[in-house]
Structure to design on (130 residues):
């Protein structure tokens, strides 16, 4: 995993864990890699992974079974989506709005491009699954 300077490493690891949950690599009640295992895999200090797990536990995404390890919560996907949506609306959307305003791009063009993006990226995937 390559880390970016703009965001704390423990939050980047949290994003990595959340992506694996959203991609259903780790399902509800699945045991997560131990702190040491994940630290070795990602080549980071175990304290950083512990901070990640503490953060995700405080968000209700994972839970700890004392002496056994960390597990994916039943409603982890819903909590991840709600958290990411809030982050997007608070942080990314204002930047997006500022850019389209400065560039003179109208909502009609955005709508057309978004519809094309959905058709190209998601309808094709549905057809290939079916």
């Amino acid at each position: 995993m390559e880390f970016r300077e703009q965001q704390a490493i423990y939050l980047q690891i949290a994003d990595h864990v959340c992506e694996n949950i959203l991609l259903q690599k780790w399902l509800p009640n699945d045991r997560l890699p131990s702190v040491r295992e994940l630290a070795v895999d990602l080549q980071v200090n175990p304290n950083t992974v512990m901070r990640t797990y503490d953060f995700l536990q405080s968000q209700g995404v994972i839970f700890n079974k004392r002496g056994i390890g960390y597990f994916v919560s039943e409603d982890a996907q819903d909590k991840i989506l709600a958290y990411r949506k809030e982050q997007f609306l608070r942080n990314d959307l204002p930047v997006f709005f500022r850019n389209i305003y400065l560039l003179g791009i109208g909502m009609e063009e955005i709508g057309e491009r978004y519809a094309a993006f959905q058709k190209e990226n998601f309808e094709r995937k549905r057809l290939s699954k079916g």
